[in-house]
Prior knowledge:
Elements: E1 4-8, E2 11-15, E3 20-21, E4 33-37, H1 38-46, E5 55-59, E6 77-82, H2 89-100, E7 106-111, H3 118-124, E8 128-130, H4 137-146
Parallel strand pairs: 3-4, 4-5, 5-6, 6-7, 7-8
Antiparallel strand pairs: 1-2, 1-8
Amino acid sequence: MKNIITTVSGVSAVVHDDPWSMPGEDDSGNRDYQIVSLERLLVLAESGESLQKLYGVVLHPDDDPDILLPWLDSLPLIALQFPRFSDGRAYSQAYLLRARHGFEGELRAVGDVLRDQLAAMRHCGFSSFAVREDKSAEEALKGLEVFDLIYARSVSTPQPLFRRR
C-alpha cells in the first residue's frame, strides 16, 4: 500500500515501508500483514485461526462496526472505506470504534482520501490515512499541519475549546 500517512504520539509522517496489503493488491512482496474483507475475517475466526497481529480488516460504509466487538482486542488494524469523498459514514464508524468501543489499534482511512479530510478524520479517531494514489502523501500531510484547532470535543481532543482555557 502506498501513500500512507500515520500519526504516532501526535506526530504525523509519511510511511515509506508500510507492511500492510489490502485485498486485491499485488502480493508479490509476500507481505506478512494482510488487511482482509469482513467476510474473510469471519471465516478465519470461525476456523479458529489466531487473528492477533496477522490480520487487519476493512469495513465498508454499510458494515456495522459492532460485528467486530469479539476481536477488537486482537485486531491491530481496522481500515474504514471511503468510496467517495462525499461519503462520510466512515467518520461515524471511526468515532464509534474509538469512543464507544475503546479500540486502541490503528484506524486507517482508505479509498477516496484527500488532504482536506485528514484533520477531520484525525479528530474522529483515525490514526493513519491511505491517501488516494493520484495525490501526493507529502502534500496531503500539510492538511494535518494546517488545520489543527477544533472548537468542539472529539476523539483526539476530548474537551471543547472553552474548557481548554
